[in-house]
Amino acid sequence: MKEKIVYTNEVGATIDRLVEESGAKSVFTIVDVNTAAFCLPLLRETSKAVAASTVLTVKAGDAEKSLEAAAALWKSLSNGGATRSSMIVNVGGGVVTDLGGFVAATFKRGVPYINVPTTLLGAVDAATGGKTGINFNGLKNEVGAFALPAATVVSTVFFKTLPKHEMLSGYAEMLKHALLSGNEALARALSHDAADTDGLLALLRENIKVKTEIVASDPKEAGPRKALNLGHTAGHAFEALAMERRQPIPHGYAVAWGLIVELVLSHLALGYPTTHLYPVVQFVKAHYGSHPIVCDDYPRLLALMAHDKKNASPEEINFTLLHAPGEAEVNRTATAKDIETALDIYRDLTA
Amino acid sequence: MKEKIVYTNEVGATIDRLVEESGAKSVFTIVDVNTAAFCLPLLRETSKAVAASTVLTVKAGDAEKSLEAAAALWKSLSNGGATRSSMIVNVGGGVVTDLGGFVAATFKRGVPYINVPTTLLGAVDAATGGKTGINFNGLKNEVGAFALPAATVVSTVFFKTLPKHEMLSGYAEMLKHALLSGNEALARALSHDAADTDGLLALLRENIKVKTEIVASDPKEAGPRKALNLGHTAGHAFEALAMERRQPIPHGYAVAWGLIVELVLSHLALGYPTTHLYPVVQFVKAHYGSHPIVCDDYPRLLALMAHDKKNASPEEINFTLLHAPGEAEVNRTATAKDIETALDIYRDLTA
């Protein structure tokens, strides 16, 4: 099924049109405390549907992707008379769209919902693709559902007040999509200033399409969709190690550095051309700086990669690797030695 | 999508074949305390997959379709190392298949599951069609998901020890399917002894097909699937009123009596032929007896019907009605006066 995404900065009017087309009989808007303060006022002014809606507010932050928060939202929907003919509008970053999407997907066995991502990372990552969920039993997205939104409204109007590191965090995912797309998309992504919102909407349109086409070919992640994990195996390990040392790094930064490690692995294993490797390294260094690691970190990084992939041993770890921009191969295993070599080269390149 | 249903009394061997074909790497069996005692021993003897599986036991009864029970199952799956490559086998009646199906549909965004209904009602109703869910906020199935099982194994081996009223309760749903199918299916359903398990498996095969074809045409209940509500609007009202008076009646009995009311309404509104009405009345009286009501019950019954359909007023209530066996029309509204006339005739017919 083709996912519906509208690229526009006329967000309010677009929500109204989508709600009207859906024939929804009532609207519930889910926000977190931040988007309640910074995004909801504009939407209330520009959208009749949002202005007339019941607003449900959750806390901000990943801890809110909880069963307790989901239960509170189900209860509010139930007491508020929501039905399968209602529409839920999720206004926020990944926490709101993951949580709100899961609640929508499961209330009365499914209420349609519209995602209005308010961060770049939300727009390019969580808001599309239909992965919804909550954290449970100490594990991320342990409970959830695949449920595509009725529509996602992608705009840049809410990005102007985002801190620069938030923009960069989202841009790392765009870089990943460009790498999965091909030479031309990669060239365009590398020539755009990562923190610049001007011209971003057009770039988002071509960039998010890369993801939605992969998702449409494999909605429930049986295989090809794993291509979207590019950069994330090494990236998650960087992120987890930094967290263990109480010096957390933003998710997108970890992905940017992880992309370098996995492109080096791609070069070693599949001959990914260095002509398309060095420009990415330069871009990442220029915008994200370097993330220094030492040899003593390798065993823990390997263990974290193995854990992330639920592998029994760190001797054979699954990656998505590239033959070239636009030519991904999923389920490529790499040995501990391969990965250590790639980490060595990563250190040289980013030194 | 066509739903996979296997009709066989070789239940254990069939589960093994289905698990093997799926390539599942681990199996979790969900039972309630009753099926743990009466059904699990046979399955352990005859199925290697069940014998080697992790067994998760829930309480019996509708109160167990709760968020707390779902959370306990998610936790057991998480701690037990279940993945999207596992298989969940639900062994039980509607409570187990609704709860276990919902937990499977949402654990890690969806683990495949096999339903093994152990009651006739479960086989003809809850185990197929992909409606899963839990009760929440005092409302039935307020939270849930549409998620088809990987397969349902329909057998009669577990029915031999069921009380007669349990068999009759399930048979009322079979009667409904036969009415939705046509003259021939209706004749066959009326000539089968409702409490007889011999020959039931072949009858189940043709009968459940009526439901799964309707479901396949409308998996998320946008319209045509409402045909399956036949008999249930009046039936739920009978059931709820009896509950209010602390003289509960079995669900299937309420449906059987509700079918009479709605066939009478069908006759009045759509000319449903009396030649196909009287035999149904005779069958229901012979097997289910009569459910006497008086004029003073009408206002409460109408209010309960309106509430069931979420109508604002009891003046216009939605029904699924029949022009003839096999010719359903959904979303037919009836006025309070129509329904009162139908209730008058129901009383005459069942007196």
CATH third-level topology of the largest domain in chain A: Dehydroquinate synthase-like, alpha domain
Which segments of chain A are poorly predicted (pLDDT under 50) over 5 or more consecutive residues? none
By DSSP (H or I, 4+ residues per run), the number of helices of chain A equals 15
- Identify the CATH architecture of the largest domain in chain A: Up-down Bundle
Largest interface here, residues on each chain? A-B, 29 and 29 residues
Q: Percent of residues of chain A in helical segments?
A: 40-55%
Proportion in β-strands of chain A: 15-25%
The largest sheet of chain A has its strands arranged as 1-8-5-4-2-3
Given this structure, which CATH class of the largest domain in chain A is correct? Mainly Alpha
* SS content category of chain A: alpha/beta
Overall form of chain A: globular
Written as H for each helix and E for each strand, in order along the chain, the element string of chain A is EHEHHHEHEHEHEEEHHHHHHHEEH
CATH superfamily of the largest domain in chain A: Dehydroquinate synthase-like - alpha domain
Outline the structure in words:
Two copies of one chain form a homodimer. Chain A is an alpha/beta fold. Chain A folds into two domains: 150 residues, Rossmann fold; 184 residues, Dehydroquinate synthase-like, alpha domain. Helices cover 50% and strands 18% of the residues of chain A. The first copy, chain A, is built from 15 helices and ten strands. In chain A, the strands form three sheets. A six-stranded parallel sheet of chain A has the order 1-8-5-4-2-3, sandwiched between helices. In chain A, a hairpin with a 2-residue loop joins strand 6 and strand 7. In chain A, helix 8 packs across helix 10 and helix 12 runs antiparallel to helix 13. Chain A is globular, with a radius of gyration of 20 Å. Chain A starts with a strand and ends with a helix. The model of chain A has no long low-confidence stretch (mean pLDDT 94). At the A-B interface, helix 5, strand 6 and strand 7 of A face helix 5, strand 6 and strand 7 of B.
